[in-house]
Amino acid sequence: MTRLVLVFMTFMAVCFAKPPAISPQDTKGKIQEILRSHACYHSLNQELIARSFKNMIDELDPLKLYFLNDEIQAYLEPTNELCAKTIDDFNNSSFTEYLKLHALMEKAIERRSRLESKATISSEKISAKAFKDINFSDSEESLLTRLCQVKSLHEQTLLKLKEDPQKFLNKIQKRRIHHENEMLGK
Questions:
Q1: Domain ranges in the chain?
Q2: What is the pLDDT of residues 110-122, one digit of tens each?
Q3: Which residues pair with 68 in a beta bridge?
C-alpha cells in the first residue's frame, strides 16, 4: 500500500511539475554570474546582444516555418541603438526586446496554425537538402509554399517507412503542438 502511494505521488509530481518561476532579477544575476566567469566577455556588449537575438530566433524557429523575414529583421541585424537599449534594459532587470520577440512568436504560431490547414502536399519532389541554409520567408504565400513542401517531405518519408499514415502524421502534429506549447510556456 505504501509503495502504491509513493508511486502515485511520484507520478503526480512528475506530471504536474513546473519549472521554478525565475524573476527578471534572478535572470540578470545568473547572466552576470556567467559573464564574470567567461574567458573573454565580462560584461554585456552589442556583439553579445546581437548573438543572443539570433540564438533566440534560432531556438524559437529552427526550421524557419513560423517567422516572416520582415518581422524579425530588426533582431537578425540589430542596430547599435537597439543593442544599447537592450543593454540599458538589462541593467534595469528588464527584458523588453526579448518579450517582444516572444510575442512575435505567439503571433507566428497563430499564423502557422492557420496556414497549416491550407497546406496541401506539393506535387513536386522535394529534397531535404532544399531546407539547408534557407532564409526566412518574405510573405505568407512563400511560407505556405514552404509548409506544402514540408508536407511533401513527410509524404515521401511516409512511403519509405511503410508506417500507418495516420499514426505517422499524428506524431508529427503532436510534436509540432508540443513545440508550440513549449514556446508559449504552456
A1: 43-184
A2: 999 999 888 887 7
A3: 137
